[in-house]
């Protein structure tokens, strides 16, 4: 009986592998008409392979940040009135749903939906790469209550609906609106080529353990102050250190980005949330930030140091524009350790690379 | 049955010996993980009948032979059952013990069944995406996909065990024959252009370094630069100590002394160059895939070649294939990984033959997207991917919640809001999967597995679900309930007996 049971268990496990032939639907069956913000259906083998390519004339002051998970192209614009961003995203299944598109963006800034007639009125014609598109503007509040303005242009094409979004503070967006409309006229969508597919492998990272210094970053010798122990950096970090002192612990990380990733206020509020503190506005920001001195560029603020404490935890965060990139330094840990390492951290920030 | 065999099978000593063997196996398996990795140890020690050879604390012991997990588990079940049969006699006072034994047998058999029948897969999607298939991460297949019409595709999937170097794959559904020219368990697929770019950067940086320390005159100016950038100070101090300097607090002064000493200055320059060079090469070698995997692979390969004194030129980086993506890529074979945090990326070079002639070679790897192969007017897409199984329903990720405890990376709340659409049952319902709260649906269990989040605490809205097919998933629950019932019965039976006896004694 026991032998029979063992054999019965073994049989499925020892099944000889065979070639399988089967038929599938190109798209996973989907009952919900809810639109998604994801790019063109990724389950479509051809769409996956042939990533569309865009040609355009880049307006002055726009910085190409390359593609990300949601958008094919992203631009950052540093204006005297603050930062604005532009991204281009193709979406499938949006044709004929213009009112829904308007309301989708309105909900993003906390505005009530419009009925179909009102939504239609909010749309104006715009030329997008020689094709007739439509444009609308929404103003409202972003997460955290910051005022936000979005200008969205879109055009429905056989390969999907293409969305061009300019977003930022009302002043920043107003200053870039003309450049944005002119930019739209220059955009040409080209079919994907093998080359564009090849350069974007699908695989997830091979390892989360290895040193992820940003490709193209100048080779630097980052040696820590005495007592800091170098660790394998985490995702998006170029260096990581730990400091142990009198039973306390703190961590230091260094990251480099092409943009200031949301500005001083956004980053300081992010750090505040990490300590369990609430967000502050521009006035509150002055109380927890000091300047470090040094060069300003691209109209952005110079190096700053944020100093945050909540009960027995303290965080020092520095943002340093340097050679066209933004360096982010962060020391977080037990307050006594961070207190003791404050000066070493500031020196480390000032003197790297 | 032979009496002595029956006596052996029912012996308590056998139970003790088997438990002893199990303890040693667990200990050896735990230590061996350091050299062999978790998955190999699970398969070779615990999901096997016999263990032959081991490596403990770095020492190889090919002579080591030990019963595997299956042998010990089956031995314990047989021993327990036989003892149960031999000693079983029905009485209310023994019912608790009988139930406890039955429960343990259910647990043991259930675990054996789980090991043999359980299949683990993953489902990875972004917010708004709908998927209707699951993929096994550590089992791969070579897939050929052809459009049948505007809605349907035909898939010919060749499982990994059939992918061996030199093998030929023929299938009536394919318009060509496939010969596996190369097959490797793990390899980097590296862009030739990016490797050359990285090689140029590295060579230029090393050249600058060479120039910075080319003569004794440059030692002092370089030391003065260190004063401006204290990050390099410790390297300098170590090197200065290496040439016999004891007072290295003032690096410039120490450098002046060494520069004036011909016996020491050459050694110091060579040592500094070696240290800074090693730092540069290490930075390139350890480049992570996180941001630009192609550039990172190129930097790793460039560092490897420069370290070995090999050129990084187009001529020294042969394309992996004549057609497709591989025509611009070169292969860097790697040993298969064994640790938990990394995984192997198998690759193959396929020679596609039709009409008696070769159409060229194609490189396939899980790191590459699907590639088209055109034969006449027919296009077949080829890819090497995780073994894929399609579901009769689809799942859409509506929202991914990713929260960590403030100031740490410790998960607080990983949660996926999903929509299940099942055309067979006309079901179209939303539900949530979170940590410790899986969804059981259609014979599968969906567990919240991973979320991605970057340094800026932004969640890109991607969720990975672990999908487990385990026909014996109820066995541990039933086993535990039976054991608990047996223990409860035993306890209550004795308690009631004790109280009754006490009352009787009082009455008397």
- Output the strand order for the largest sheet of chain A: 3-4-5-9-8-7-6
The description of the largest β-sheet of chain A is: 7 strands, antiparallel
- What kind of sheet is the major sheet of chain B? 6 strands, antiparallel
CATH first level of the domain at 119-182 and 386-469 in chain B: which class?
A: Mainly Beta
Number of domains of chain A: 2
The total of beta strands of chain B comes to 18
Summarize the largest interface: chains and residue counts.
A-B, 91 and 104 residues
Helix proportion range of chain A: 25-40%
CATH topology of the largest domain in chain A: Jelly Rolls
CATH structural class of the largest domain in chain A: Mainly Beta
Overall pLDDT metric of chain A? 71
- Shape verdict of chain A: globular
Distance between the termini of chain B: 52 Å
Integer average pLDDT of chain B: 85
Topology readout:
The complex is a heterodimer of chains A (353) and B (508).
Chain A: H1 2-13, E1 20-25, H2 45-49, E2 53-55, E3 62-64, E4 73-79, E5 82-91, H3 98-108, H4 116-121, E6 124-128, E7 131-141, E8 147-157, E9 160-168, H5 170-186, E10 188-190, H6 194-198, E11 228-231, E12 239-245, E13 248-257, H7 263-274, H8 282-288, E14 289-291, E15 304-310, E16 313-322, E17 325-334, H9 335-351
Antiparallel strand pairs in A: 2-10, 3-4, 4-5, 5-9, 6-7, 7-8, 8-9, 11-12, 12-13, 13-17, 14-15, 15-16, 16-17
Chain B: H1 3-9, H2 12-36, H3 38-46, E1 50-56, E2 59-67, H4 69-87, H5 95-117, E3 119-126, E4 130-147, E5 152-159, E6 168-169, E7 177-184, E8 187-191, H6 192-212, H7 219-228, H8 233-242, H9 251-259, H10 262-285, H11 293-307, E9 329-333, E10 347-354, E11 357-365, E12 371-375, E13 378-404, E14 411-422, E15 427-434, E16 439-441, E17 444-451, E18 462-469, H12 475-507
Antiparallel strand pairs in B: 1-2, 3-18, 4-5, 4-13, 6-7, 7-10, 8-9, 10-11, 12-13, 13-14, 14-15, 16-17, 17-18
Helix pairs in contact in B: 2-3, 2-4, 4-5, 5-12, 6-10, 6-11, 7-9, 8-9, 8-10, 10-11
Main location (chain B): membrane
Subcellular location (chain B): Membrane
Keywords (chain B): Cytochrome c-type biogenesis, Membrane, Transmembrane, Transmembrane helix
């Amino acid at each position: 009986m026991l032998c029979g049971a063992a054999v019965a268990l073994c049989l499925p496990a020892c099944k000889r592998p065979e070639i399988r032939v089967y038929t599938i639907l190109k798209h996973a069956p989907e009952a919900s008409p809810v639109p998604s913000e994801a790019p063109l259906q990724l389950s479509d083998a051809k769409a996956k392979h042939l990533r569309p390519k865009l040609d355009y004339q880049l307006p002055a002051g726009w910085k190409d940040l390359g593609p990300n998970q949601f958008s094919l192209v992203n631009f950052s614009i540093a204006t005297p009135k603050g930062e604005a961003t532009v991204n281009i995203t193709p979406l499938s299944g949006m044709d004929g749903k213009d009112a829904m598109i308007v309301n989708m963006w309105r909900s993003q800034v906390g505005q009530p939906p419009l009925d179909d007639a009102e939504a239609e009125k909010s749309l104006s014609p715009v030329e997008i790469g020689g094709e007739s598109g439509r444009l609308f503007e929404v103003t409202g509040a972003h997460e955290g209550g910051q005022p936000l303005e979005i200008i969205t242009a879109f055009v429905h094409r056989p390969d999907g609906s293409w969305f061009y979004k300019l977003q930022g503070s009302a002043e920043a967006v107003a200053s870039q609106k003309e450049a944005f409309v002119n930019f739209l006229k220059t955009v040409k969508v080209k079919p994907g080529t093998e080359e564009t597919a090849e350069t974007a492998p699908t695989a997830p990272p091979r390892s989360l353990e290895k040193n992820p210094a940003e490709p193209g970053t100048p080779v630097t010798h980052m040696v820590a102050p005495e007592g800091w122990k170098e660790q394998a950096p985490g995702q998006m970090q170029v260096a990581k250190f730990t400091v142990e002192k009198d039973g306390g612990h703190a961590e230091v990380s260094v990251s480099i980005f092409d943009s200031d990733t949301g500005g001083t206020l956004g980053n300081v509020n992010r750090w505040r949330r990490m300590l369990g503190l609430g967000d502050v506005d521009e006035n509150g920001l002055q109380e927890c930030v000091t300047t470090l001195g040094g060069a300003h560029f691209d109209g952005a603020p110079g190096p700053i140091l944020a100093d945050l404490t909540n009960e027995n935890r303290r965080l020092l965060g520095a943002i340093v524009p340097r050679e066209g990139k933004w360096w982010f330094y962060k020391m977080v840990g037990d307050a006594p350790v961070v207190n003791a390492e404050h000066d070493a951290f500031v020196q480390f920030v000032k003197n790297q690379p | 049955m032979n009496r002595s065999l029956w006596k052996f099978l029912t012996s308590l000593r056998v139970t003790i010996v088997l438990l002893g063997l199990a303890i040693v196996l667990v200990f050896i398996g735990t230590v061996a993980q350091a050299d062999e990795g978790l998955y190999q140890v699970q398969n070779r020690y615990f999901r096997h009948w016999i263990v032959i050879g081991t490596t403990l604390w770095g020492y190889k012991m090919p002579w080591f032979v030990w019963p595997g997990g299956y042998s010990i588990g089956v031995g314990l079940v047989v021993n327990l059952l036989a003892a149960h049969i031999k000693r079983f006699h029905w009485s209310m006072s023994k019912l608790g013990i009988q139930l406890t034994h039955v429960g343990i047998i259910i647990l043991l058999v259930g675990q054996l069944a789980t090991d043999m029948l359980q299949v683990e897969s993953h489902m990875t999607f972004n917010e708004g995406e709908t998927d209707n298939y699951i993929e096994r991460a550590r089992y791969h297949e070579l897939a050929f996909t052809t459009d049948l019409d505007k809605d349907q595709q035909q898939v010919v999937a060749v499982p990994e065990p059939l992918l061996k170097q030199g093998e030929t794959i023929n299938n009536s559904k394919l318009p060509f024959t496939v010969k596996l020219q190369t097959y490797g368990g793990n390899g980097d697929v590296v862009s030739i252009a990016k490797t050359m770019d990285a090689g140029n950067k590295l060579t230029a940086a090393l050249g600058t370094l060479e120039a910075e320390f080319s003569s004794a005159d440059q030692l002092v100016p370089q030391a003065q630069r260190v004063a401006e950038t204290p990050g390099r100070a410790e390297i300098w101090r170590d090197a200065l100590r290496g040439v016999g300097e004891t007072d290295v607090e003032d690096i410039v002064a120490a450098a002046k002394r060494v520069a004036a000493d011909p016996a020491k200055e050459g050694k110091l320059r060579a040592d500094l160059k070696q240290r800074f060079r090693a730092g540069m090469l290490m930075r390139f070698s350890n480049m992570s895939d996180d941001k630009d995997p192609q550039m990172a692979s190129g930097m790793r390969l460039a560092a490897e070649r420069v370290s070995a004194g090999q050129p990084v030129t187009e001529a020294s980086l042969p394309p992996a294939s004549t057609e497709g993506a591989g025509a611009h890529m070169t292969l860097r074979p790697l040993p298969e990984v064994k640790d938990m945090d990394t995984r192997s990326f198998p690759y193959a070079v396929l020679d596609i033959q039709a009409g008696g002639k070769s159409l060229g070679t194609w490189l396939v790897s899980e790191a590459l997207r699907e590639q088209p192969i055109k034969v006449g007017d027919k296009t077949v897409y080829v890819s090497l991917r995780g073994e894929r199984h399609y579901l009769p329903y689809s799942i859409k990720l509506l929202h991914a919640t990713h929260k960590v405890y403030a100031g740490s990376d410790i998960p607080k709340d990983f949660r996926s809001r999903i929509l299940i659409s099942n055309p067979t049952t006309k079901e179209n319902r939303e539900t949530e999967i979170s940590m410790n709260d899986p969804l059981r649906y259609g014979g599968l269990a969906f567990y919240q597995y991973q979320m991605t989040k970057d340094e800026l605490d932004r969640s890109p809205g991607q969720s990975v679900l672990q999908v487990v097919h385990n026909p014996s998933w109820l066995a541990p629950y039933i086993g535990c309930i039976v054991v608990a019932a047996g223990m409860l019965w035993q306890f209550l039976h004795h308690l009631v007996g004790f109280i009754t006896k006490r009352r009787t004694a009082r009455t008397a």
